[in-house]
UniProtKB/TrEMBL annotation:
It comes from the Archaea. This is DEAD_2 domain protein. InterPro entries: ATP-dep_Helicase_C, DinG/Rad3-like, Helic_SF1/SF2_ATP-bd_DinG/Rad3, Helicase-like_DEXD_c2, Helicase_ATP-bd, P-loop_NTPase, RAD3-like_helicase_DEAD. The keyword Hydrolase applies. GO terms for molecular function: 4 iron, 4 sulfur cluster binding; ATP binding; DNA binding; DNA helicase activity; hydrolase activity, acting on acid anhydrides, in phosphorus-containing anhydrides; metal ion binding. It comes from Ignisphaera aggregans (strain DSM 17230 / JCM 13409 / AQ1.S1). SMART domains: DEXDc, DEXDc2, HELICc2.
Amino acid sequence: MRFPYEKPRPGQIELSRKIISHINRDSIIVLNAPTGFGKTAVALYSIGKLIDEGIVDRGIYVVRTRNELDPVIRDLRSMDIRFTVLYSGRRMCPIAIDRNISPESFWFTCNILRIKGVCSYYKRLNQMNLNALLEALHSISDHISFSRVLSDKLGVCPYFASIMLINTVDIAVMTYPYVFKERIRRIVEDIDPTTTILVVDEAHNLVNIGGVMGDSISRDIVDKAVREINRFFPGIYRDVVEVLNRLLQVKPGDRGYKFIGKESIGFTNDIARDINVIASEIAFRYVEMYRGVEENAMGIEFSTAHLAKFLSMLIQDGFELFVSTDYGGRVEFHALPIDLSLIGKIIGEFYSAILMSGTTPSKTFLVDVAKVNRNVVELDAVDVGAIDYLRENSYVAIFTGATTMYRYRDEDTYRVYALLIENIYREIIRGVFLVVYPSYEVMYSVTKMFSDMDGIYIESGEPLSHYSNLVERLGRMMINTVAGGRLTEGIEIVENGESLIKVVAIIGIPYPQIDDYIDIIRKSFGDGDTRFSEYLKEVASIRILQAVGRAIRSDKDYALIILSDRRYLDRDILSRLRLRVRLVTQSIERIREIVRAFNNQYLSQAS
Ligand code: SF4
């Protein structure tokens, strides 16, 4: 087995040896490694060795988003190992790729095209042998070229070709849902997990069990689905429409997720099955409309497809129905796992697992909440010589002049934070100032107090690339966002390998909002209130480190981090963060001086 790089970095081979010696049917590995260490290569190399030794048959490597597939693909290519790639069917499909269609409508239409035998890409799979498929994949460089090679060169469906390959290859790289979402998991059910090692990249996401396993649908979509059902099947599905109308009457609570209960609405297996039949029938009628050019039906959107997929998740054992509303007043329904041991059950199906991150979930979470029934072996790359740049290349200050603690916060609190943020921003001469809030409520309350300044942006769902383009044009900017969201988990604004995010202010401590869903997690600890508060601290620490990690991606990056809440004096939170605090102050002026000094040291020479 060849290591992915010609010259492994210090500690990589040693860590791989440790993984190989500890991994077995009774244990899982939790691998903590800072960004830039090369943990992907270590995990892949270890699995390759275990396959060579006949201990397991294959590895499944799961990543959160499709863009995170590409570094894994690059390492696999240099190892000369057989692999396949699986991500969203809609994006892999050569017919759907350029069409504006949701994944839900896509799946119903794809299903009908296959049943009717009118998808030429699918039909060609019959004439393909696995070796020809593997041979064609030699030239791929990323997930897009993976699909293109199969569809454009061989004329076959990339999605189903990849599924055909899964039992033949050594490593299958895929996105989270193929392992963590029950409905989608069925697609890869032919794999024998007992001879497979599961690798979970960015495993800190597992602490957000609802986000990893759950599903959501907006009230607007449900409303449209009811109208569709009445239009296509007038007067036929009265009981289905009655249940859906009951759902539409549900009012959200003031904060976070409010429990509704699927039984109280009347969602049963029969109702879910009826809605699935309705969605299939609608897809069938649309495909029929395009007789002779059936592929053109791929692009027709219908809301019943969303509803059918949502309900297929909701009716599973261990899932319940919740409602929430966002700041724009948009109401959403959620199917969330209330049996938090589902993650542990999934991990337990595999021969073993490697859970990797720069901020790994704790043993307490894995054993007490997720109920992982294995010996949890914690390995840290820092122990074998990796440098934690987050710690080494950051200047951390704690601002104690305010707190976002619920019972103490008021308009004055928001004013102090607005003043702090404005003063920091005034001193920044280039790059991005990332301001991270514990909730939308705090973000909007603070940002509405800003005076008129250039380059201030408040997150509102734009694609991440939007911000890179803006900073290129503006030179400096401030991005306001909420902890644990898309931006703090995924934004990378880089120029010549250097992160342009230079200053990060964490406003308050981003504990999860206390709502009906968090209350269910609290109850899963039994009487262990201390363990529940440990869990809240763990979630908050992971969110903070993820946000700070946006600024320090490699040894080239230096950043100023301002933890803005007096509760950061709590040693427990600080020890979890493993950051080195250089200054504690309640003076905004003092913080301003630090920003100025940081400018002089790191930004002015480069500007
Ligand atoms: S079977 Fe056809 S429609 Fe379905 S994903 Fe494959 S190419 Fe697309």
